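Justification of computing resources. Each target in the renewal requires a structure prediction run like the one illustrated here; the chain below, 720 residues long, is used simply to show the kind of job we budget for.
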Amino acid sequence: MSGDRGHKSGLIAAWIVLLLIDGLATLGLMRLEFGHGLDRLFQSDTARYQDYAAFAEEFGETIELLIRVEGEDLAAPESLAALETFLIELQLAGETWTVLSPLSIPVPDDQGAAVTLDRLRGPTAGAWARAFDTQPLLSRFLREDRKAALVTVLGVADTSDLDVIRSLATQHLADGELDFGISGLPVILDRSRALLVQDFLVLNGAGAILGTAVAVLAMGSFWLALITLLSAGTAVLWAMGVMGWMGIEINVISIALPVLVLALAFSDAVHVGLDQRALTKDGMASPVWPALRRIGPAALLTSLTTAIAFASLGVSGSAVLAGVGAGGALAMIVACFGVLAANGLVGATLLRVLTPDRIYLPQHRMTSRLFDWQILPRIGLAAPRAVSIAAIGVAAIAACLYLTASPRFSFDENLRENDPARAVLEQIERDFGAMAAIQIPVEAGSGEPVDMARSIIAALPQPLAENAVSLAAMADAAAAAGLSLDELMRSMAPWVQNALIGGANGRFLVSVLFDDTGARDTRVLSRAIEQRLDEALLPDLADQVGRVTGPYVMSAFVSETMIRALSVSLLLSIAASGLIIAIWLRSAKLGLLALVPNVLPVALAGAGMGVSGHGLSFAAGIALTLAFGISVDDTIHVLNRLRLASNGLRPACLHIRPVMQQVTPALVITTLVLTAGLSSTLAATLPTVVVFGMLAITVLFLALISDLLILPAMIQRFHL
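Resulting structure tokens:
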């Protein structure tokens, strides 16, 4: 009796501790913040980022907000008045904003004096047509048919700024019967953040529902499914709480982490629950703690391998990825302890009011058959030599093809093809030309900046030279307006003056506008410009021209470095996992051969990206690294069952057939639970999240087939 009271007191104390940790985790969860993360993704010690940081500090951010204004005739009095009012209110609303528009461009009037379009005398249509003939710069901001205009705003900082601009546009443009659309990098990044929050709520809710449904179906027992659900829920709460306390934000890189934790927690809980069911079937009256002792070490080991996969993201060189990696690694370890703690407490508590048979009901025969894919291990064990040789050969070929996948990145890859921001940007580029810019910083020295700019532009390939914006273009615009260059520049905003005339260090910019078709094309174009300038310019001038930079150039080169580093992180994860398995089982051969069925799925997925030409994106690189960490989990559970069955004696292959009969349903169930949880990513609005989910699910299914077919074959073939 006293022992029962002691057991009850111990349970109560354990529940108090668990609930206190839950409360602490809830406080951490409330600290979670959301952001797209792309503004800090490339911060690193790479040379290209350091170039950009120096450029941004001297010239300021060159990221523009683009507003396309459309009407029947913008020269009509009502339309022009609405546009003027909007521009005035826009400049007053943001003291640090620089607003450029068709009304910022000086044009000559009929007396030869420099004025703006709204100050031209005479019939408006004719006056504006003459302005186009004399001022070439006007076509960058106004369509010649006067039906569309471009307004650019520099200095937009955050969502609140965008809200103000949208409100002003609605108030003054829409009310003036003018249509408008807003785009540019600030909008694209803000859209990514907004879609991120939406996806986070949908993905985690749908992932939990789908994972629970599969778990209930697989378990065939309400109480066992309840234990599984509460265990997984505790794991997610603890993991997200840790991320909140660590200050790790949910961004386009880490958005899938909660779903990943949930899926892995379900997987561990299923393995423990099925072992508890097996022990109950063998007549054990209290299977909770024995099952935890049997499966717990393997669950901790699987969490460790996944944590290593996360931690390996630190080699990418990105502070954002390193932070996600550190937070994810700790979250995985904490989540595993949450699963085991909640499973033990809930199970032990239920056993005080229910019998083991009531809790751990046997599976329905039809359900059991659904999850029992014994055909695969039978094939592997029937032809172990052929299966092993084929697996090693295919893995080697796939790994070589994986290496052909080139890095791929674009700022708008987080938006769908039909996203409004993307559609507006495409329309702006059709109306007014390319908006992305490659910046060429030039040391003015003792030279004449206008002449230097003309020489640099003349050295560029002709299509690019036509799209260059520099002090030379301003000089031409001033001449067209009948002004001196100094007079024109004094009328321009301070940022424009600083960029074109020269910063504090005596430098000025030549901006080359181009169509942004992705990082790979930007790298090719940037290298071509650098090579052309080195070859075509006189040595003295070439020495004064800096390496090309700007947000598009920097992200193109730094993303290549970081995505290639993700492949290194994958290799580190593979090596670390093999080493851990070898140490755990005290067999270097087993540690090495156990990697084959896990490397093969990742190599096949990577080969598919290389052969298809889709390339390797951030989402794909992270998905492959983490999917490898997850796929190792099934291998570890097989090896753990084999270790328990053989009692540490060699050769363990003598027990592989009964072990595969026992473990196959658990592997199938956990893979389906993981897939169900991750399948919610396929409905995400962020394309990168969809890519992550597709690759992760593909690798998981390939890993399941490998663990059921190849792993037993290799264990049998090499007499492990």
